Amino acid sequence: MDRIWSYSRISKFEACPVDYVATYLWHMDLAKGNIYSFMGSQFHQEMEDFYNHEIGYDDLYKQWSKFVAKWESDPARYMFDTVKIKDGYIKNLNHYFKHTKVMTDKAVNEKPVRAIVESDKGNKYVFVGYVDTEYTDEDGNLVLVDYKTSSKSSFSKAKLPEKSMQLRLYAMAEHQVHGTPYDKIKARFDMAKYCTVHFKQENGKWKTSVQERYQWVEKMRKKLETKLKKTDLDPITIEEMIDTACANNDMDNLPEDIREQFYIENYFIEIDINEDDIKELNKHIGNKCDEIVALEDIEDLEGYLSYTYPYDPDNYYDKKLCAYHTSDYFKKRENLVDDLPPEENLDEDTAWLFGGEMDKQQDDETDEIMNMLFG
């Protein structure tokens, strides 16, 4: 236990051992940044400012809009691939900062946590990290929240076990340090680009639908038509009212009895926290640390990496996402044609691997957190 580990080290190693070595052992400056890491960093900063009581709720959108305006006026700014992608992304986050349901005022942002994992060989490793937001709900559950500005397609049922490893590691940390039972820990992703739409069906029961924030009313158009046709309004008025509601992306112009049949909330992806899964996670991460330590001990490391993990131009990650293999250094060395990835294929989880820095979770190994955790 002579080293403090961060989850980002494990993620980078699993994605590409060569990139891991270049970053953590050769200390190469590979960071390029991209529009998603740039926007994501601002998003996290605003949520941190809010929960640290440095800005108020109404300031969330004001601060965000100023940031976007400054970005748009910068001729050297990071760019989205298309105007359509840009408009959807910005409009979704505009809506989030105007309408997000915030947690209790006792929520803690960027809370440092520490976990100890153990490999099958009995080797122990200390991990530290920051929880985006943590609070205790009205039922006494400890809630861990991780903000995501990426697409929900990246968090499918098949991908969720991998995507949730960091959150589950933080749950392990809270259990180890504070003895919080796993059944009293809730972990979730707050998917900022989306909202959960609640609507009353014709049978009187409520149902939900997940929609992009900037067009949630448009997605309810047919349901609105069905409900409004049961009123004494004429067809032309109904169509005009719905068009206005969709254009404004709210239902303020609709009759009160219609509005009462719809409401929206943040869209959360809930992560199951249970002891069996945590044990498997402990084992997986501990064994992965053993692999990393063994790799670092190889004498001719560069030769080993070239032979064992050769660059594969047909591999999407190697060619498009790996910070090392997409670096100017590697391209010049290998005489490769500059072929940057379409950023629409990135989400905030792969953005930092590509070279951008997402948030403080990538800077876990700092004196500040060590002091907070260990005194």
Structural class, judged by helices and strands?
A: alpha/beta
Order of helices and strands: EHHHHHEEEHHEEHHHHEHHHHHH
**Roughly what percent helix?**
40-55%
Low-confidence stretches: 340-345, 352-375
Radius of gyration using CA atoms only? 23 Å
Strand count, sense and closure of the main sheet? 7 strands, mixed
Number of helices: 17
The dominant shape is globular
Tell me what portion of residues adopts beta-strand conformation. 15-25%
**Strand segment tally:** 7
From the N-terminal CA to the C-terminal CA, the straight-line distance is: 17 Å
Task: Determine the mean pLDDT.
Answer: 88
Domain PD-(D/E)XK endonuclease-like: 5-232
Keywords: ATP-binding, DNA damage, DNA repair, DNA-binding, Helicase, Hydrolase, Nucleotide-binding, Plasmid
GO molecular function: ATP binding; DNA binding; helicase activity; hydrolase activity
Organism: Ligilactobacillus salivarius
What would you say this structure looks like, in words?
This protein has 375 residues and is α/β, with parallel strands linked by helices. Among the domains are: 15-103 and 308-370, no CATH class; 196-265, no CATH class. It has helices spanning 7-15, 17-25, 35-51, 57-72, 83-99, 160-163, 165-178, 216-219, 221-228, 235-248, 256-259, 275-296, 301-308, 316-321, 328-334, 348-354, 367-374; strands at 4-5, 108-118, 124-136, 142-148, 185-200, 206-212, 262-271. Helix 1 (7-15) crosses helix 2 (17-25) and helix 9 (221-228) packs antiparallel against helix 10. One of its GO terms (molecular function) is DNA binding. Residues 5-232 form the PD-(D/E)XK endonuclease-like domain. This is PD-(D/E)XK endonuclease-like domain-containing protein.
